[in-house]
Amino acid sequence: MIKVLYLLNHAGKAGTERYVQTLIEKLNNKRIKAYFAYNEEGLLVERLKSIGVETYRIPMKNPFDIRAVIELNKLCRKLGIQLIHTQFLRENYIAMLSRIINPKVRVVYTNHFILANNAVTRLTNRLLTPLESGIIAVCNRGKDMMVSNGISPKKIRVIFNGVDADYWGEDVESTLREELGIDRDSFVLLCASRFAHDKGHRFLINALHELKNMVGSRFKCVLSGDGPLLEESKKQVKDLELSKDVIFTGFRKDIKNLICGCDLYVNSSEHEALSFLIIEVLACGIPVIATDMGGNRDIINEETNCGILVKYNDPKGLAETIVKVMDDKELLRTWGKNAKKAVREKFNLDKVVQETYNLYEESLGK
Questions:
Q1: Are the CB atoms for 20 and 53 separated by under 8 Å?
Q2: What's the 3-state SS for the chain?
Q3: Which residues, in sequence order, are bridge partners of residue 134?
């Protein structure tokens, strides 16, 4: 059994935390013994403690925090850690530097973003990458960006994110319409992204304004989640006189209930790697309109035929696309059927877990 330490700076409730949690739930006490270390406490710490995972705090001020390197090395020796699995640049650099002290510990890194690095970071990547045992890109564009950021393509393996197709594919009787007072004739759109700049809510709300001018109040858009731009988004909705058409729910834990109650999911992100939420939506049999950003093209394409991609920050274009599919019941049924098929075949959690575990073994020379 491999002893794996999952290292994450912020243990919150976003997609990366979901990625870590699902790997641990699937592998812990079966093929690995999992431990978790973090800097900033959040919901993930509580969730992992509730399933019996030992958690530890290691302050990590920056990617070159020598004190953090020393503390990490001490913890790995104490627990007998064989492999550290990191998620972001800060903790990844710290883990790689710890190998200088304890080279027996291997480091696997999953890159969840598609962002260009500056010249200094590109140089550092070239210097430190030899200390990496394996690198996971969650989408093809992610791999391409890492190569341009100075990382050797020989180190990178593309392993798509995945979800539990059985859980998400099981039908539920949604209470969304009843709870929110939405009549049966309204076309329901859903977006459940965190209210942050990269999620594109301003763009989406502007598109809803265009949509209302085209179809009147034949639709309702449910915006679920919290975040720093929530109040700003509420003000924008009010200013555009969309208060009767847009419903804010705040952060919800019953995301499957919301998904199964909508007709179409809209992803408006400016930056995206491979969205867990999009895959979860598709696993429920709900089609998706998404921006042609990041790894969305790996999910929605001619092969999967489960939705459509649109240009980012083109409100009129997004509105026109929504109008095209609103009344096309046959298209929505086809997309919904293909959505479940795509998740089972390409974005299944069991497939992700097996490929990741294979990388663990390869990294340890097993």
A1: no
A2: CEEEEEEEEECCCCHHHHHHHHHHHHHECCCEEEEEEEEECCHHHHHHHHCCCEEEECCCCCCCCHHHHHHHHHHHHHHCCCEEEECCHHHHHHHHHHHHHCCCCEEEEEECCCCCCCHHHHHHHHHHHHHCCEEEECCHHHHHHHHHCCCCHHHEEECCCCECHHHHHCCCCCCHHHHHCCCCCCEEEEECCCCCHHHCHHHHHHHHHHHHHHHCCCEEEEEECCCCCHHHHHHHHHHCCCCCCEEEEECCCCHHHHHCCCCEEEECCCCCCCCHHHHHHHHCCCCEEEECCCCHHHHCCCCCCCEEEECCCCHHHHHHHHHHHHCCHHHHHHHHHHHHHHHHHHCEHHHHHHHHHHHHHHHCCC
A3: 108
Q: Compute the distance between CA of residue 256 and CA of residue 30 in angstroms, rounded to an integer.
A: 28
Torsion of CA 98, 100, 102, 103, to 10 degrees: 120
The token pair at 289 is: 């309109």
> The dihedral of CA 264, 137, 350, 40: what is its sign?
negative
> Residues 57, 30: contact at Cβ < 8 Å?
no
Per-residue pLDDT of the chain (366 residues; tens, 9 = 90+): 999 999 999 998 778 898 999 999 999 999 999 999 999 999 999 999 999 999 999 999 999 999 999 999 999 999 999 999 999 999 999 999 999 999 999 999 999 988 899 999 999 999 999 999 999 999 999 999 999 999 999 999 999 999 999 999 998 899 999 999 999 999 999 999 999 999 999 999 999 999 999 999 999 999 999 999 999 999 999 999 999 999 999 999 899 999 999 999 999 999 888 888 999 999 999 999 999 998 999 999 999 999 999 999 999 999 999 999 998 999 999 999 999 999 999 999 999 999 999 999 999 986
